[in-house]
Amino acid sequence: MRSKRGMKLIWTEGVALDDATKVLTAELYVKWYELYLVTKSSVAIINFADLEKHTQPAQSAYCDHVPNPAVVERFAMNNGHTIDPVFFEVCTGRWELEVLR
Asked: Do 86 and 12 meet the contact criterion of CB atoms below 8 Å apart?
């Protein structure tokens, strides 16, 4: 699976796609420019700005090239999406290392 610019996407082996499943992930790359919503038949771009309406007061949706994992989780839950587990671990680690420190 690849992004619109041809980069591999983070994808956990064993994550099954059926007609109803939409999985949120990102590129397997050092910087993220957007997120990706993968279905059985398509790969759609999710801009970081799309996360904004899922923030809590005084909470950032993203910082630089890193989305806030709490907001990513809320975005997915509010829209009925699944989050790729490896993507979520990497996202959480990047937030901790690049934003919170």
From this structure: yes
Contact 35, 46 (CB under 8 A): yes
- Cβ atoms of 66 and 94 within 8 Å: the answer is yes
pLDDT digits (tens, 9 = 90+) for 50-63: 999 999 999 999 99
What's residue 14's pLDDT?
A: 84
pLDDT at 78 exceeding the cut of 90: yes
Between the alpha carbon of residue 90 and those of residues 20, 41, 84, the distances in Å are 25, 25, 10
Question: What residues pair up with 61 in beta bridges, in sequence order?
Answer: none
d(CA 101, CA 17): 36
Amino acid at 97: L
Torsion from C-alpha of 66, 67, 73, 74, nearest 10 degrees: 160
| Whole-angstrom distance, CA of residue 75 vs CA of residue 88 | 13
What are 32-47's pLDDT values in tens digits?
999 999 999 999 999 9
